[in-house]
């Protein structure tokens, strides 16, 4: 391990967090992890990291704390309170929250951390599980330029496109826009799949040629096999996309931006979740279109 690299505490070792933390270990960082499931901590230890029994223990000696948890309530739970990050991390540490949460939560966290002498960046990501494993994530960052510059070498071990988007909360705003685009794109692909199949066309051939033209997209590239095989093992769960569509529709209302198509897709995501498909990958929007088209799913 290189002694000159910052010591990292990683909180949240889920579908995204585990491979990301492992990529930091591969890059030579000393990583101590904590998450709610012991098996996930064991996986980090097996990859060369250290385990911690609590948030407080994980962050005590850290130079950088990275958090990757599902939503705003979880960020608040690990950040605040006597056992939280801000009470236990040393002054001068850098907190990089890579969760996808409301922009306001990020703004509030940065203000609370400043009182403790802790620097904060909101740095949500796009690219899904595959992007996390391959370390090719797109990372949209909100915060101060100096803190972004300090974090950049670490972020480069996790992603390929790393951009400072503006002050605190800006990363979350751009992530919300990302989730809007992705959801509408997945929905459009799902509708095309059902249309093609009902028309009797060779679906694999059709998706290949569509992906080579203007209709092609990263979404179609990444999700083509999900559609073809009806494989909805979660790379990004409907439950989380439901949360994100709530964030973008709420934030858009606050600033006075209309999202007519986004609002419809938000409702389709919500209905899919209500039908018990919340644990499936967001490509399972295909199931919603199939139901609407009269198929038994």
UniProtKB/TrEMBL annotation:
Transcription regulation in keyword set: no
Q: Which residues form the 6-phosphogluconate dehydrogenase NADP-binding domain?
A: 7-166
Which UniProt keywords are given for this protein, alphabetically ordered? NAD, Oxidoreductase
**Could you tell me which residue ranges the 3-hydroxyisobutyrate dehydrogenase-like NAD-binding domain spans?**
169-287
Write the Enzyme Commission number(s) for this entry. 1.1.1.60
Q: Keyword NAD: yes or no?
A: yes
Q: Which Pfam families match?
A: NAD_binding_11, NAD_binding_2
Q: What's the name of the protein?
A: 2-hydroxy-3-oxopropionate reductase
């Amino acid at each position: 391990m290189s002694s000159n690299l910052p010591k990292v505490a990683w909180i949240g070792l889920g579908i995204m967090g585990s491979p990301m933390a492992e990529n930091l270990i591969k890059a030579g960082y000393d990583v101590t992890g904590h998450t709610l499931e012991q098996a996930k901590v064991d996986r980090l230890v097996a990859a060369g990291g250290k385990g911690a029994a609590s948030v407080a223990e994980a962050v005590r000696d850290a130079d950088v704390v990275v958090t990757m948890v599902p939503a705003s309530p979880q960020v608040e739970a690990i950040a605040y309170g006597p056992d939280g990050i801000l009470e236990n991390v040393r002054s001068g540490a850098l907190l990089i929250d890579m969760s996808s949460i409301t922009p306001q939560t990020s703004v509030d966290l940065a203000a609370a951390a400043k009182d403790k002498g802790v620097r904060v960046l909101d740095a949500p990501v796009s690219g899904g599980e595959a992007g996390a494993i391959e370390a090719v994530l797109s990372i949209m960052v909100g915060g101060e330029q100096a803190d972004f510059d300090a974090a950049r070498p670490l972020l480069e071990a996790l992603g390929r496109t790393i951009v400072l988007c503006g002050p605190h909360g800006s990363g979350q705003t751009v992530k919300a826009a990302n989730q809007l685009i992705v959801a509408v794109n997945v929905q459009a692909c799902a509708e095309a799949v059902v249309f093609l199949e009902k028309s009797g066309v060779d679906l694999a051939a059709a998706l290949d040629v569509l992906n080579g033209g203007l209709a092609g997209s990263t979404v179609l590239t990444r999700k083509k096999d999900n559609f073809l095989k009806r494989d909805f093992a979660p790379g990004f769960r409907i439950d989380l996309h439901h949360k994100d569509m709530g964030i973008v529709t709420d934030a858009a209302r606050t600033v006075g931006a209309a999202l007519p198509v986004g609002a419809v897709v938000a409702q389709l995501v919500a209905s899919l979740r209500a039908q018990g498909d919340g644990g499936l990958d967001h490509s399972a929007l295909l199931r919603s279109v199939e139901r609407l088209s009269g198929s038994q799913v």
